[in-house]
Amino acid sequence: MIAEVIVDIATSELDRIFDYTINSVPVKIGSRVIVPFGNRKILGFVINIKEESTLPNSKLKPIIRLVEDIPALTKECLDLANYISTKYHISKSLTLRLFLTAEMRKGKVREKFHNFISLNLDEIAFNEVVYSLKKNAEKQKEVLNYLKANGEALQSELGEKFSPSTVSTLIKKGYATVKKVRLNRTPYKGVLETKNKVELTSEQKNAIEIVKNSSKPTLIHGVTGSGKTEIYLSLIEECINDGKTAIMLVPEIALTPQMFSRLRGRFGNLCAILHSGLSAGEKFDEWWRLRSGEAKVAIGARSAIFAPLENIGVIIIDEEHEQSYESETSPRYVTSELALFRAKYNNAKLVLGSATPKIESYLSAVNGEFSLATLTGRVNKKPMPEIIIADMRNEIKSGNVTAFSKALKYELEETLNSGNQAIIFLNRRGYSQKIICRECGYVAKCAYCDVSLTYHRYEDTLKCHYCGATYKMPSGCPDCGSVNINYSGTGTQKVVEDLNKLFPNAKILRMDNDTTQNKEGHYKILKEFGDKKADILVGTQMIAKGHDFPKVTLVGILDGDMSLYFSDYRASERTFQLITQVAGRSGRADKKGKVVLQTFSPKNTVLNHAIEYDYNGFFNKECSLRKASHFPPFALILRLMVESDNDEKALETLKNVFYKCKEIRDENASEFIYFNKMKSPVKRINNKYRYQVLARIKTGNDEIVDSFYRVATEFDGAKVRCYLEVNPNSLS
Ligand code: ADP
Ligand code: ZN
Ligand code: ZN
Fold first, then answer.
1. Per CATH, which fold does 386-432+489-626 belong to?
2. Are 453 and 464 in contact (CB under 8 A)?
3. Residue 380 CA, closest ligand 1 atom number
4. Of ligand 1's atoms, which has the minimum distance to the CA of residue 196?
5. Is 312 helix (H, G, I), strand (E, B) or coil?
């Protein structure tokens, strides 16, 4: 027999299928194998088994060994890999890597076992053995007596108590036996398990019926607190009862612990968590529990869409509007497209949920490509928190130059006095935005990227938020020597400092990328705040998401209009989403919530739709704008990036790439709305010069997209990187 193998080497030249002979090894489709390759031995994936090769047998080498008995990849995984590879023009070996953790690929982790030792002697035999043991075998007698008194024991503990060699001697003699038990390195041991099950409302039941009766994906649109999660839990429960499995996707690590605890509360060990924050061992064990069928529900961020489950009944994408569902580094893919593939493959239901659906998704619902289930209010009938607009122009006119409006200060005081909690949200992180010389206008910039640096108060350093480089804070201006260098803007650190001055008795926590570097950073901060060990939580985007803190009655949004000015066609959508999400953190339980939204543009229509919680109004307005200006979802943006640490080479490649693209354009001129080449807005990141060919085309032109992909593949190399982005989240 012959195995078709894809070797785990990421270079595109080697992206071929190689034939190997199968000798005595019990190889299956999807198995990981070690194969000879040149004069090396490397990992490969068996993607097919066939009778004969087109090559003569003498030219073929045999597979050396199998990595594990159960094939790591299912047939579905291989088909999905194929789909990804074709759709996004990603090499087959890179695609297959998506299904396994990096550590697994490198063979650095494997299953961990515990050895349990027990007596292998009945009463009579025990006595015979103990009496026949020689005087110098006192230790062995002790161990036998210990086992008799205590039943089975861990080999490692026995070894420590007595001696490892004594224990192995007893095993060798057959007096004791070893039982290997797989050890599960379960993540989030401390996660609270909430068990209460609720009687669903008629709206929730109706939504479930819509999902079950629909052959299309279903969009569940409902404000935070409208009971979407309970719907997910019910759908998953029905799947499990039907002997099926489920995948539940959440946007970010920060969100996972809370959702995970709700799932665990309901389904216990049947659910497994998959995400990059786990240790290699934990990741492997959770993956394996899913693969072996021990766990039936996979929960995790976007990569959980690769969960090794079979017979899937439902796939849920919670907070479907989140950008994190689109991979923005290689390999680039759109999670919902993969989810749709798997849903079709398994004849499973696909459910997307959000309080603020993506314009694309809602349009699909309006067009009838998706089914729509709408939840009209919060389960507890509590009104959405009132959003008060604070006009920051007036604050400045009246001499208030702090980051806090009078309204926010007043509400904060009320909140603290009544023993409740507040969340203060801002878009930026770090102590301040930029360092500017007041004499000559010098702005501190990263040496490797074309962006300004951010001052971080506690470390007293400047950091680049693009590449992570850190710099010492200069004592004077490097250009003119003036000591009059200043911080402009406000960051989380500065806000905490100012709050400390305003409310010296309040305990304040900060949550942003800087305070949550390690695995459990998020969880710890959220837990502390949830346990009411602090009064105010200050943070960036990551506190906007689905956390449920019953004691929070006030949310302050410091820079409500910041994101309106991003040079991105989705700026309005982002702003609407952000305000709605952050506002949803206030007044979740029995107390009425309030939100203070600070802005310099109080008349802006996006803000006004947001404070009215008027999604439909916003959607209609935004749709007509996008339609008129030919932006997605009424057009496709194609951005072909050219990057190199050599500026000239990049420019030269850009010219060639542009030439090729222009041929495509000329053949399809009527399909193009916009077409040009230029420097990228951020001209350099991590010492790489960046150029782009930017195009906007009418939708439904998959061949043009494919042609652009082929151009990217043709020019992509080690010296000059070339890749295509379709409707990218960021155009920086
Ligand atoms: P969402 O996911 O839309 O934010 P959740 O499902 O988390 O909403 O529901 C919000 C709160 O209401 C949760 O505390 C949840 O336990 C509770 N809840 C949801 N559905 C019901 C119900 N039918 N009866 C009582 N409480 C419910
Ligand atoms: Zn200067
Ligand atoms: Zn940098």
1. Rossmann fold (3.40.50)
2. yes
3. 12
4. 16
5. strand
